[in-house]
């Protein structure tokens, strides 16, 4: 009788074990087991620790204290405001209105809010802000350039070439070098007014200013109470035409009170009262002599 041979065990894993091994070899599962599980345990422990209100308050207080300590470090403190590009009176005014109480941490400065405050001043055309090393808040100002004076019902104001207000002026004599415009709505037509003033350069010192009529057109005011009434459209061309005629026939040197160019096809001259009286007197003398 032959001895019974022992049964050999099948070395292949079972189907379930095979699937588990393949699943464990998946990169995402391996990463999850290596990092996800420890992270979940840490978060769980942290959540359990923060579930206590007293602990949360203590942690918040600690974090705030550390952040305040960082903000108040000397290298982050602003101790000086430097203003470049502004006249001394404007620079002093800017220092007085910016919402900054020195010394202050640079973390507490809202540079855009400060910039908008500075831009709200009429004389300021543009402003740039930055914090320089050494704790200096640098404000670089570009002031508006005065171009013209505007007399309105509220007083006399200095405007730039765009019509933006700069300063209120006490007297005309204090800025005699600037041309003058008068009337409601004149500030909205500064560019056109400056073009007329350039065109009137041949008149020299005779030009006294421009008057806006009905917010529609301009009158050019000269010395000797002479006026040139310009049309609503192409006023510069009409003024150049008057100046050309005057240079040829010395029209503005005569006893003419008004040159009316409102109808370009039919310019009209109006004599002064004295010249008109002389004309009537001469006519009466001629009539009586006949």
What does this structure look like?
The protein is 39% helix and 24% strand. The chain is elongated and about 150 Å long. The longest helix is centred in the first third of the chain and has 24 residues, at 27-50. Helix 6 packs parallel to helix 7 (235-249). It has helices at 15-24, 27-50, 53-71, 88-97, 111-119, 190-199, 235-249, 273-289; strands spanning 77-78, 80-84, 104-105, 124-132, 136-143, 148-152, 155-159, 165-169, 180-182, 207-213, 217-222, 227-229, 256-260, 268-271. The strands form three sheets. It has a nine-stranded mixed sheet. Among the domains are: 74-143, membrane protein fhac (Ubiquitin-like (UB roll)); 148-279, 3-Layer(aba) Sandwich (Rossmann fold), CATH 3.40.50. The model has no long low-confidence stretch (mean pLDDT 84). A hairpin with a 5-residue loop joins strand 7 and strand 8.
Q: What is the CATH superfamily label of the domain at 148-279?
A: Cell division protein FtsQ/DivIB
Rounded mean pLDDT is 84
Q: Give the fraction of residues assigned to helices.
A: 25-40%
CATH level 1 class label of the domain at 148-279: Alpha Beta
- The CATH architecture category of the domain at 148-279 equals 3-Layer(aba) Sandwich
Order of helices and strands: HHHEEHEHEEEEEEHEEEHEEH
